[in-house]
Amino acid sequence: MSAASHPTHPTRLALIEAGLELAVDTSLSRLTIDAIVNKAGVAKGTFYVHFADRAAFLVALHERFHEWLRDLVFQAIDGLPPGAERLRIGTATYLNDCLQEKAIKAILLEARCETAITMQVQRRNSEFAKLIEADFRALDWPEPATSASLFVILGAEAALIELETGRNEALRQTLWRFARIEE
Q1: Whole-angstrom distance, CA of residue 144 vs CA of residue 155
Q2: Which of 11, 28, 72, 100 is least enclosed, having the fewest CB within 10 Å?
Q3: Torsion over CA of 46, 52, 58 and 59, rounded to 10 degrees?
Q4: What is the pTM of this model?
Q5: Is the distance from CB of 156 to CB of 127 less than 8 angstroms?
Q6: What CA dihedral angle connects 101, 126, 3 and 31, to 10 degrees?
Q7: How many CA atoms lie within 13 A of 153 on its CB side?
Q8: With contact defined as beta carbons under 8 Å apart, do 26 and 38 qualify?
Q9: Cβ(33)–Cβ(54) under 8 Å?
Q10: Residues 127-148, buried b or exposed e (16+ Cβ, 10 A)?
């Protein structure tokens, strides 16, 4: 197996971590391969051992960020039965942690113009919708799969609004009302 095909290769992980660190202080246009390799302390050619191009790197950043979010959501809802509490806690965890990593969320938002990132966003949304479909089913929603898909999109948009405004309790309460899961 080549280093490029091994997602846990230490140098690949160092490059991704460098990109995530740089995302805190820079825009997508300034997140260059040179800046990434300088931050990671590796030669430029090493970047291309792990990523075909900058777009592939951005996909890897997106995957890393959303895997981290997914793990936090899974920890938060662990042991909770499907339903209102699990849906509310999972969504609040997602929103809170997007706010915690505001700069990274912002740079990944900028990256959505990349076709590969758009496909990743759609895949992640589908994964989260499958997870919360059980919550909508437990809440006796008609068309639970469709309802879950719409709620995921609402949650993602809420995260983007909070990216601009900060934590927004009125927005969150509206999400809870939409899903009929008021506290």
Answers
A1: 16
A2: 100
A3: -120
A4: 0.83
A5: no
A6: -40
A7: 7
A8: no
A9: yes
A10: ebbebbbbbbeebebeebeebb
User: Could you report the per-residue pLDDT of 95-120, keeping only the tens digit for each?
Assistant: 999 888 776 676 667 767 777 778 88
* Cα angle: 168, vertex 73, 177; to 5 degrees: 40
Token duo for residue 40: 């990671």
Cα 175 to Cα 70, 137, 158: the distances in Å are 19, 17, 8
**Residue 40 identity:** A
pLDDT of residue 31: 82
Residues in the chain: 183
